[in-house]
């Protein structure tokens, strides 16, 4: 099946710093990538949908200036958490699809962010 | 608007017994339905999907799911559970080609030896 990678798998940072998370589709071209946030023992909360070469579409309540998303190529999307605070600590998961209509979302392994 | 419900937070079964994880959905058009499994501190792994065709869908690791339009359900099943099946399972629905899936709250499956 299709493989999606995320880097880093975990990161610890100080409050006020910015953190970039990369999401890559390794063996297919991802026209659409999704970024989710998952709290412990809870479901996935969709943060934004990004399409290659265009601005991301953010879900209601998600600050686009805080969670910067860039989908510069068909295999790479990045999420930058700017001026991170402890409440941003979470498990961030990306997924990618090839946009073929009946496509399946393939998920990355997730990134555990801890903000001190 | 689309929605999906997983009525059980937790399902416990004995190894070797059949298992069922329930999912019901609501969409205004034709549903695209998915099941995913998540192991601790990992991303979601795709198990199976229903788009059209045969109501019984077979997927990875011996799992299958049955699409029931009249009951708007898509329950996940396996004839004989393994301890290694213990994980968190998510059902998801997408309305046609809307591009955005809605996930259920997840069901924790525990298979005891």
Brief overview:
With 116 residues, chain A is an all-beta fold.
Task: Give a topology summary.
The complex is a heterodimer of chains A (116) and B (113).
Chain A: E1 4-7, E2 10-13, E3 19-25, E4 32-38, E5 44-51, E6 57-58, E7 67-73, E8 76-81, E9 90-97, E10 106-107, E11 111-115
Parallel strand pairs in A: 2-11
Antiparallel strand pairs in A: 1-3, 3-8, 4-5, 4-9, 5-6, 7-8, 9-10, 9-11
Chain B: E1 3-5, E2 10-14, E3 19-21, E4 24-26, E5 31-38, E6 44-50, E7 56-58, E8 64-68, E9 73-78, E10 87-95, E11 102-103, E12 107-112
Parallel strand pairs in B: 2-12
Antiparallel strand pairs in B: 1-4, 3-9, 5-6, 5-10, 7-8, 8-9, 10-11, 10-12
Tertiary shape of chain B: globular
Main sheet of chain A, how many strands, which sense, barrel?
A: 7 strands, mixed
Backbone CA Rg of chain B: 13 Å
Largest interface by Cβ-Cβ < 8 Å: A-B, 26 and 21 residues
Estimate the strand proportion of chain B.
over 45%
Structural class computed from helices and strand pairing of chain B: mainly beta
The shape of chain A, in one word, is globular
Radius of gyration of chain A, rounded? 13 Å
Describe the structure.
Chain A is built from no helices and eleven strands. Chain A has strands spanning 4-7, 10-13, 19-25, 32-38, 44-51, 57-58, 67-73, 76-81, 90-97, 106-107, 111-115. The radius of gyration of chain A is 13 Å and the shape is globular. The mean pLDDT of chain A is 90. By secondary structure, chain B is mostly beta strands. Helix content of chain B is 0%, strand content 53%. Chain B has no helices and twelve strands. In chain B, the strands form three sheets. In chain B, strands 2, 5, 6, 10, 11 and 12 form a six-stranded mixed sheet that branches. A four-stranded antiparallel sheet of chain B has the order 3-9-8-7, with no helix packed on it. Chain B has a two-stranded antiparallel ribbon with strand order 1-4. In chain B, a hairpin with a 4-residue loop joins strand 8 and strand 9. Chain B is globular. The model of chain B has no long low-confidence stretch (mean pLDDT 92).
